[in-house]
Amino acid sequence: MPRTRKADLPARVAGETLRRLDRHAKRLGKPRSNLVERYVEEGLRMDEHPGIVFVEGPAGRRPALAAYRGLDIWQVISTLHDNDGDVADTAEILDLPKSEVRLALAYYADHRTEIDDWIRTNDELFEQMETAAKRQQEAARR
User: Fold this and answer.
1) Domain range spanning residue 37?
2) How many domains does the chain contain in total?
């Protein structure tokens, strides 16, 4: 999420909700305010883009297609770019309805920098893994 100037958000929530939030923040080792900001931002994005959810993984939280929990938005957009922006081809390759590709594209249009960063990061990780695999193959032959 982009960094912007912070502002206070006075809010009243149920006591049990606040206790759950505090327990969760403690488990994650993060301040409560960080989680509140994350939940508000992600909630707004999900309201703006129905069908998008946020999932946790080793690389961090990222937007994904709700109906296809294992498929991140960056993966759909990367495939779309590899296919010259052809929605039908991308849908066929990923075995998705075209509407899901369009959903990912709509999210990308609003959050382009974020998704481009995910694509770049994953391309770099892939190259590192490929280089490591080649080194291991060479080492195995000697």
Assistant:
1) 11-48
2) 2
